[in-house]
Amino acid sequence: MKVYIKYMVSLRCKMVVKAELEKLGLKYDSLQLGVVDILGEVTPVQLEEFSKGLKLSGLLVMEDHKSILIERIKNVIIEMIHYDDELPKVNYSDYISEKLGYDYTYLANLFSEVKGTTIQKFIIKHKIERVKELILYNELSLSEISYKLHYSSAAHMSNQFKKETGLTPSFFRKVKKRREENLEKL
């Protein structure tokens, strides 16, 4: 039985779901962002207890088809940008469509209708969050970051970063460095 879970977007969330499953003695086949495949029979009482346990941690069991599909789209994007070592070499639209088994136009229209934004804008926001994360790690140059996230150039990434945050990536890095220096002086 597949159970779809809203707001399950991190490894910590996976640990919470795993703990709830173990607490109820439920075995599972796979546990991915946004979905768990529970093995065997699940009684309505167990499902209710599972739902209540997750709710205490801010996670919700979903039953509505549209909500489930929207959450699956979001999880594919989050996993692709934040957790995969390499972004796919194909278009994002092809990747998302292939992963979910739906026509991309249908997914894009549904996403826009429900979320009030496009899939593309959602991807951009997450790519910029990933850029921030990589800048904070201070292990890669801006050119390496832009290459890793499949930007056409560091300039393109910088322009998109500034459009989303109001700051240039270089200034963002300087602010981080200044903050660290101030913390060291305390």
Q: What is the succession of H and E elements?
A: EHEEHEHHHHHHH
**What is the gyration radius calculated from CA atoms?**
19 Å
* Apparent shape: globular
- Strands, count: 4
Low-confidence stretches: none
In percent, how helical is the residue content?
55-70%
The count of helical stretches stands at 9
CATH topology of the largest domain: Arc Repressor Mutant, subunit A
Q: Kindly report the name of the CATH homologous superfamily of the largest domain.
A: Homeodomain-like
Let me know the average pLDDT. 90
* CATH architect. name of the largest domain: Orthogonal Bundle
Q: What structural category do the secondary elements indicate?
A: alpha+beta
Q: At the first level of CATH, what is the class of the largest domain? A: Mainly Alpha
**Major sheet strand order:** 2-3-1-4
Largest sheet: 4 strands, antiparallel
**Beginning-to-end CA distance, first to last residue:** 54 Å
Q: In oligomeric terms, what are we looking at?
A: single chain
User: Any idea how many domains?
Assistant: 2
**Beta strand %:** 5-15%
Could you characterize what this model shows?
By secondary structure, the protein is an alpha+beta fold. It has two domains: 1-63, Alpha-Beta Plaits (2-Layer Sandwich); 64-186, Arc Repressor Mutant, subunit A, CATH 1.10.10.60. 65% of the residues lie in helices and 9% in strands. It has helices at residues 11-23, 44-55, 65-83, 92-100, 104-115, 119-137, 142-148, 154-165, 169-185, and strands spanning 2-6, 28-32, 35-38, 60-62. A four-stranded antiparallel β-sheet has the order 2-3-1-4, sandwiched between helices. The termini are far apart.
